[in-house]
User: Fold this.
Amino acid sequence: MTYQQIERMTPAAAPARVGQGTAVEQSRAVAEVQAAIVVAQQCPRDISAAIAEMRQSCTQPFLADKAFYRFPRAGQTVSGPSVHLARELARCWGNVQYGLAELRRDDEYGESEMQAFAWDVQKNSRNSSTFIVPHKRDQKGGPKQLTDMRDIYENNANNGARRVREAIFAILPPWFVEEAKELCAKTLRDGGGKPLNIRVADAIKAFEGIGVTADRIETKLGRPSGRWTEHDVAQLQVVFRSVQQGEVSVDDEFPAPRVTTEEITGAGSEVAK
Assistant:
């Protein structure tokens, strides 16, 4: 390797002079971090209070409805705890900072460099990831290039939310997260105290509003509506919210019924007659 090649690989030196605004912002950021650490050490979390607050939050239907996600991948459906649950657990646990930042945007190559992080200030446990988000949106027929500023912002936020979720869960105690998931699932199964038959009727009516008939739901669950359980209705609630948020499509969750040979033959015979 020649000297010229080595010289080209050497990173450029930092600028010798920075503006007054930049210097003030750098000082503010350092002071903010130091203050957060001092406050966390002087006001440590009360684990018993954090558990009690988490349990109270997870019994609320408003949180339970948004606590899980579903999306298709490689012909299968992936599900798990959502970023909404992660943020609420971070609030309950206390002394946790998290966020998403756009480090760089390259309109020429159509991509943004993002960073997601979560930091337990009290324990000084931090998880972060830096990743590239292409300015594209997957859709049927192939990805679509995004040029509108609002579309790019929403695409970056949606992709970043998943990394923020994983960063938060990485610094929270696993037992804390697992208990929250179980409580949210139980809240969904309880259905706010409504009788099961009313919840089944409400679920059917809600899906009919997005073009899904009761027959397609019964085909998915493998049993008629009269035999649905609390777990079935809770699962349908997660599916319905995922369809509303665009995480999955109706066809992904409820494949259209196949037409049999007998039905085609029978239809042909009726037409011939």
Remarks:
- The radius of gyration is 25 Å.
- Confidence is low (pLDDT under 50) at residues 1-7.
